[in-house]
Amino acid sequence: MFVHLRFGRLATAFLLVSLGWETPATAGDPASPYWFTGVGTLPDGDPDSVARVISGDGNVVAGFSGQPGLGSPSVAFRWRRDTGLERLNALTPAAADFGATLSLPRGLSFDGSIAMGLASSEYDGQSPIVEALQTVLWDAAGNITPLGTDRFQTPARNNPDFPSEAISDDGQFIAGILFGREESARWSEANGLETLGHLNNLGDRGTLASDISADGSVIVGSSLSDYDGQLTSTIRQAFIWTESNGIKGIGASPDGELRAIDATAVSADGLTVVGSGITSGGDSVSYRWTASDGFVSLGEFGVTSLSGDGSVVVGRRSSRVATIWTAPRGLLDVQEVLSEIGLANDIAGWELFVVTDISHDGRVITGEGRNPQGIVEGWVATIPEPAIVGIAALLLSCARTVRRFER
User: What's the mean pLDDT in 56-85?
Assistant: First the structure.
């Protein structure tokens, strides 16, 4: 019996190594590709830090120190893997005062050298003015540049100029919404503002862009439509816009079982969309969609982003369970995955709420959680290659079973 169990353990270890996974005994070593860290907090701001987006190469994270919500002061930050946390400049004159600042990063270029988001340019002596929010860019040194109303032609002074939602890998294209016109648009220095148009069916009333592909040629979001044509009720439809075909509804599965309501994110290659939908029975679910394969229901899973090729989807289950999805294994608890690759000590005392974003290669994730001191803090972690994350978790489970028999 001992010989067979010993062989089973060695065989499992061999399979893990052959798949490129370290065994739990080595995964926490400094030379290991697997690691977990909190991003820290800014010394002069709110103790909470919220990590929102990660660069395509996985080396830079952007977020803010403060409480979520447009009504609360917040200080934008950028975290680099090699240098740590840095404060990004603000627009308000009293930027040195945390309570006077409202800055919210929304996107990063591929290498993280350009950050994009919203910032308020006015301060009333007590708090930053939400109505003065506008789209801004931060450069590699953290300097801030407002893009301004002259570029985005917003008709309403008391609304954000161009609420930006996403930026292309090279930083040249930004997708966002024109408030006051309920219309989505793409902006670039070369072409200016390009509106995306509307869906013609069901009396389309407006569109809300949410994400953009790596090259800026694909944008996804949701469309607000009149249900009965009389403006008495509305429904939402997920849309995809491409340079070649314009705006189109993603629609529903062929059997009518699932209808796409919102498109939350698009993969870097522009081929895979994830979002929320509703079943024929009225249940809310998330979905993954491609033009070639159609819909895959992800169940009750709040999706936030996906890898560059769409093979890994991230988000949360319930309200406080950071989760990833892969086709081979379905939904996986991130804390369990990290423990299984030997990072149990690193995440001890942490509660990981949500994965907010993922790198293009599907290997680096960022999110929000509560650290061992009870403070909300952003975090960054590496995970195995998408193709083997589920297989490796299964093999490690087998290894644990073998060890139990050996005791």
Answer: 86
CA 39 to chain centre: 16
Which residue's structure tokens are 């993603």? 250
Residue spans per domain, the chain: 1-21+388-407
Rounded to whole angstroms, what are the CA distances from 358 to 64, 91, 259, 309, 315?
Answer: 18, 29, 26, 11, 10
Tokens of 236: 């939402």
CB atoms within 10 A of CB 14: 11
Q: Which residues have C-beta within 8 Å of that of residue 246, sequence separation ≥ 6?
A: 196, 197
For residue 251, what are the contacts with CB-CB under 8 A and spacing of at least 6?
A: 237, 259, 260
Q: Is residue 364 a contact partner of residue 54, using CB atoms and an 8 Å limit?
A: yes
Please answer whether residues 173 and 212 qualify as being in contact, where contact means their C-beta atoms are separated by less than 8 angstroms: yes
At 256, the pLDDT band (50, 70, 90 cuts) reads confident
Identify residue 26 by its one-letter amino acid code.
T
CA nearest neighbour of 304 among 170, 135, 179, 166? 166
Predicted TM-score (pTM) of this structure: 0.85
Q: What is the mean pLDDT of residues 78-88?
A: 94
Least confident of 91-95, 129-133, 286-290: 91-95
Type and span of the H or E element at 13: helix 2-18
CA 275 from centroid of its chain's CA atoms:
12
Query: Is the four-CA dihedral 269, 81, 315, 159 of positive or negative sign?
Result: negative
